């Protein structure tokens, strides 16, 4: 819980007591950090007397660099522990506009825990509502109140983010007087997001089944269809009382960071404030630094799809009974057996000159083709014995070949499917991803893995419809998220029995987190009296 209070250079007794009462009654068990250019010892002692951990820092020059002071201030020893607490009160005694943004950035960099609740109390020395620029560093943080001096009294105005039809306004919530102390006419802090009062929000997204299924009208507006995120959005809008407009980003991209630091697509519109939130969006480190993600609700890996395995030509059936190594062994054994038969006939004491080397090899080949040999060695018992064993070997090989050949001719064989990125990168296929330039593009562009870099060097970009047409007509692989591909295939590329008409690889890789996201919105406000 973070509470930010800013008071004038000379703290009147009324403002001092109002400060103490608010910290005691409405900030819980929080530690207090004060940044001042005056003596804060009396206030520190008063807070410590009420068992509130408090300390003081000079802000004359320390915050210029956006860093909190490194030296422990006098009268306290809490600094070593304070940034490990999840509940902090920050009191600013001086120029608010020059310190507010720097202080928040410094605390954000140095804190070691998540600050789960934030309270911001600002001081206004003009007795009227402060300018909208004062609230810019606070963004859309809830629980913002403003102290205004009114003589001996101090009035409290609260910033309501979504009041009067969804507009941000300041209204008077109470007053502190010396006689009655702190009296509130309405809650000082309340759940700002329980009711948006009919506020119209702008949602930017792209079609991404099964999470987002939308149609596009001629004027560019999107028409929602039943899908996971659309159903959740409709229930959320009913529960928290807001309306919404769905639209696509102007460049129809999810968003990547350009060399100049600017973001495109959905990310760019959230950062620039032209949209309030997005539906399904993948979360990564770079994106988390520029937008805010809501809780992760799905995790989905990448896969790729290709055309299904095709039947091999029928004339290749005569070669398919044996694998290539077995064919090479068979050919080599035929040649070697002819050479051995020739050697046995020539090394005999009575050599038979009629058996040349070529004739001996052809006789071995004839035995492999089940052709009878009309001339056999008459003198060499060794040659006759060898040829007998060779015939037995040929019978075994031919029996195995014929039985396999019958099966190959009966049941057609298919080409081998590709099931991994390594196989894809080594194949004759081309490959690609969608042309919406999202986290899939970031993955292959930034990954140091060699296979990812090889794929990125020849990456193609097409929309999902063209990609499926391409993979069915060419040797092409389309890479995307598994749930998106499964939904698209089930809707458009399955037969009447539900069997897919494409092949999905068995290997899934690089699972990613899906969440809704919003920009770091800045809301101005006008003043009114409730």
* Class from helix and strand fractions: alpha/beta
The CATH topology of the largest domain is given as Rossmann fold
Q: List low-confidence stretches.
A: 6-11, 59-80
Query: How is the biggest beta sheet arranged?
Result: 10 strands, mixed
- Regarding CATH, which class of the largest domain? Alpha Beta
> What is the CATH homologous superfamily assignment of the largest domain?
Response regulator
The best one-word shape is elongated
CATH architecture of the largest domain: 3-Layer(aba) Sandwich
Residues in helix, %: 25-40%
Number of strands: 22
Tell me what you see in this structure.
- The protein has 530 residues and is an alpha/beta fold.
- The chain folds into three domains: 2-194, Rossmann fold (3-Layer(aba) Sandwich), CATH 3.40.50.2300; 198-206 and 252-310 and 414-530, Periplasmic binding protein-like II (D-Maltodextrin-Binding Protein, domain 2, 3-Layer(aba) Sandwich), CATH 3.40.190.10; 325-401, no CATH class.
- The protein is built from 15 helices and 22 strands.
- The chain has helices at 13-26, 41-49, 79-82, 96-110, 228-240, 265-272, 285-288, 324-346, 357-368, 381-410, 421-426, 439-446, 450-457, 464-473, 482-492, and strands spanning 2-7, 31-36, 54-58, 88-93, 118-124, 144-150, 153-163, 167-177, 181-184, 199-204, 213-216, 222-225, 242-247, 277-283, 292-293, 298-306, 430-433, 459-461, 476-481, 503-504, 509-518, 526-527.
- The strands form three sheets. Strands 1, 2, 3, 4, 5, 6, 7, 8, 9 and 22 form a ten-stranded mixed beta sheet that branches. Strands 10, 13, 14, 15, 16, 17, 18, 19, 20 and 21 form a ten-stranded mixed beta sheet that branches. The chain has a two-stranded antiparallel ribbon with strand order 11-12.
